[in-house]
Specification:
It is built from eleven helices and twelve strands. It has 328 residues and is α/β, with parallel strands linked by helices. It binds ligand PBG.
């Protein structure tokens, strides 16, 4: 008869022991907090679709910097909400565009804050698509030149890293070439390598005013039935010179985080997107789940799958949870 000398429960007996044998170790250093900067003055408003997240005009960014500092978060990714939009998204690369203003404001408040920028056009085009339109189709190659211009303008404003999220073919190479030509060899590219046409971006599109005015993003973002295609996208971005590979969304895509970690040597980032955050918030508000616990558990699962970096709206709260030892 099996005598039960081997007892996995032995290592679960106390908190001391459970923390000793944790397989997943997380540091607040690996968190990136998404921030929405809005054109205007004296704007500090909670975003209805993302409770606990705010729209900050550049003059109000000190509130974000203070909160980040308080929680020991020192890496942010910026999204911009311009006052005006046009067909070609020209606000995206304007020297005094909203993201460019945001970068300067944050660097003036805290030069140590690591500022990453989302490089895309959907917040700046009147039609809400992620590139230049040719009829109803996004023209890949025309869009590349503009994306490169956006990335360079972010670097000129002081961005530490750029993160293209548009899903055009060849954009990492185009951006790398333009950055290098402009003496930004040391600005890394975190590529949204496998970005899916996801329903989980809903709250973000409200927050960023970037919902497409017609159609959807399925001709450029990925089909969520596919995983081999995601590895192909990652491999291409490696060849094109990406420095960090991102999988997005995170929670429903842990198989891809895992595969990406196994296959490639680059750091792997996962983006726990707006819908993932909003779902936890809504379920907690309805009294259905414990918000703090669900936040910790979902973050741990993303790291366990292999993420080195987590982009999350919960960055400040998670940093505290990690420090307390409730996670990591
Ligand atoms: C811009 C962009 C989006 C997100 C990040 N960058 C929206 C989209 O592709 O529609 C989504 C982030 C989130 O949902 O938290 N292209």
């Amino acid at each position: 008869m099996f005598d039960n000398t081997i007892r996995p429960r032995r290592l679960r007996a106390s908190d001391h022991l459970r923390r000793l044998v944790r397989e997943t170790r997380i540091s607040p250093e690996s968190l990136i907090w998404p921030i929405f900067v809005i054109e205007g003055e004296h704007i500090y408003e909670e975003i209805p679709s993302l409770p606990g997240q705010y729209h900050y005009s550049p003059d109000e960014l000190h509130r974000m910097v203070e909160r980040a500092r308080e929680h020991g978060v020192s890496r942010v990714i910026l999204f911009g909400l311009p006052k005006d939009k046009d067909a070609i998204g020209s606000g995206a690369w304007a020297a005094d565009g909203i993201v460019q203003q945001g970068i300067r404001a944050i660097k003036a408040l805290d030069p140590e804050m690591y500022v990453i920028t989302d490089v895309c056009m959907c917040e700046y085009t009147a039609h809400g698509h992620c590139g230049i339109l040719c009829g109803h189709d996004v023209d890949n190659d025309q869009t590349l030149a503009l994306l490169a211009q956006i990335a360079v303008s972010h670097a000129m404003a002081g961005a530490d890293m750029v993160a293209p999220s548009d899903m055009m073919d060849g954009r990492v190479a185009a951006i790398r070439e333009a950055l290098d030509k402009n003496d930004f060899q040391n600005v890394p590219i975190m590529s949204y390598a496998a970005k899916y046409a996801s329903y989980f971006y809903g709250p973000f599109r409200d927050a960023a005013g970037s919902a497409p005015s017609f159609g959807d993003r399925r001709s450029y973002q990925m089909d969520w039935h596919n995983s081999r295609e995601a590895m192909r996208e990652c491999a291409l971005d490696v060849q094109e010179g990406a420095d960090i590979l991102m999988i997005k969304p995170a929670m429903s895509y842990l198989d891809l985080v895992y595969q990406c970690r196994q296959r490639f040597e680059l750091p792997v980032a996962a983006y726990a997107v707006s819908g993932e955050y909003a779902m936890i918030k809504a379920a907690a508000a309805a009294g259905l789940i414990d918000e703090y616990g669900a936040m910790c558990e979902s973050a741990a699962s993303i790291y366990r799958a292999g993420a080195d970096i987590l982009i999350t709206y919960y960055a400040p709260e998670l940093a505290d949870a990690i420090r307390k030892g409730d996670i990591g």
